[in-house]
């Protein structure tokens, strides 16, 4: 796969019924979001400014807001997800700001955040290298970004176990398996592709480790 600044895949818009279907399925395992938020909070300084890029329904950002007094912002290209996430935050009684925007042209001033998180979305960005440039721009000196995403060599049995843990009905589980096989794995980046893209940005280098069926990519400013 080419790691040029523009990616041929333009992305299926997560709007309307598609976004609601995604949110229902992702919301079946809130325990996973809670554990992820607690692990993230353990590495955050008190009062940190946190940006989640492509938060979708906002589950992780909302769980993180329950963990401490952070200023949390979510940026998503889907207007449906922005509305949905704001409603979810209001129901949860937490203060999280969700904004509509593009990861390749973020509507934030330089040095606005201490930490950036992006999970299960980077492989879908049309301009991944520009998105990395933007992450560097909006981070403060000493800040870091973490990208969590699927790896293209994820074993089929591990993917099957992951889907089973999601607690889906048989039909949604089937759709999810097909989505992994025919769409997501084809878009996912290898460790080398991540390193090549990062090398073209001010980050220069990154740390990468395997986590389950995915990769955890850490970038530091």
Name some characteristics of this structure.
221 residues; alpha/beta; Rossmann fold; seven-stranded mixed sheet; disordered N terminus
What does this structure look like?
The structure is a single chain. With 221 residues, this protein is an alpha/beta fold. The protein has a single domain, classed as Rossmann fold (3-Layer(aba) Sandwich), CATH 3.40.50.150. Helices cover 42% and strands 21% of the residues. The protein has helices spanning 16-26, 30-41, 59-65, 79-92, 128-138, 156-165, 170-187, 191-199, and strands at 49-53, 71-76, 96-100, 113-119, 139-150, 207-211, 214-220. A 7-stranded mixed β-sheet has the order 3-2-1-4-5-7-6, sandwiched between helices. Helix 2 packs across helix 3 (59-65) and helix 6 packs across helix 7 (170-187). Mean pLDDT is 89; it is low at 1-12.
Give the SSE map.
Elements: H1 16-26, H2 30-41, E1 49-53, H3 59-65, E2 71-76, H4 79-92, E3 96-100, E4 113-119, H5 128-138, E5 139-150, H6 156-165, H7 170-187, H8 191-199, E6 207-211, E7 214-220
Parallel strand pairs: 1-2, 1-4, 2-3, 4-5
Antiparallel strand pairs: 5-7, 6-7
Helix pairs in contact: 2-3, 6-7
Number of helices: 8
* Overall CATH architecture: 3-Layer(aba) Sandwich
Q: What is the level 1 CATH name?
A: Alpha Beta
Termini Cα gap: 27 Å
What sort of overall outline do the alpha carbons produce when their principal axes are compared?
globular
Q: What's the rounded overall pLDDT mean? A: 89
CATH topology: Rossmann fold
Q: How are helices and strands ordered from N to C?
A: HHEHEHEEHEHHHEE
Number of strands: 7
Unreliable sequence segments: 1-12
